[in-house]
User: Which sequence fits this backbone?
C-alpha cells in the first residue's frame, strides 16, 4: 500500500498533467476558432454583435399576467398551477370560472 507522501506526490503530478492538458486543448481550440474565422471572414465584432437568443430560463423570472380576480377580496390567480383555495371555495358554491376572469 502506498504511503501518504507517495499519494500526495502522485496527486501533484496528476494536477500538473491536468493543467498542461487543459492548456494544450485550449490552444487547439483557439487555433481552430481562428482558422474558422479566417475561412469565413469573421471578426470579433461579428461574434459579439449578435445577441444570443433568450432562453426559457431568462423568462423564468417574470410573473404571469393575472387572469382571474376575486372582486370582493382582491385575490388573484394567473391560471397556472393549482387553483388557489379562495377560487376552489367560490367554484364549490356554484360560481363559474368565467365569473372571475379579468
Assistant:
Amino acid at each position: 500500500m502506498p504511503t501518504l507522501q507517495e499519494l500526495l506526490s502522485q496527486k501533484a503530478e496528476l494536477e500538473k498533467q491536468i493543467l498542461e492538458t487543459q492548456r494544450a486543448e485550449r490552444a487547439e481550440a483557439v487555433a481552430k476558432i481562428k482558422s474558422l474565422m479566417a475561412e469565413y471572414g469573421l471578426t470579433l465584432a461579428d461574434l459579439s454583435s449578435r445577441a444570443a437568443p433568450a432562453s426559457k430560463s431568462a423568462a423564468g423570472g417574470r410573473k404571469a399576467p393575472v387572469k382571474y380576480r376575486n372582486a370582493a377580496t382582491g385575490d388573484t390567480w394567473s391560471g397556472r398551477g393549482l387553483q388557489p383555495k379562495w377560487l376552489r371555495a367560490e367554484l364549490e358554491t356554484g360560481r363559474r370560472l368565467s365569473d372571475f376572469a379579468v
Remarks:
- The longest helix spans residues 4-40.
- The first strand starts at residue 68 and ends at 69.
- The radius of gyration is 30 Å.
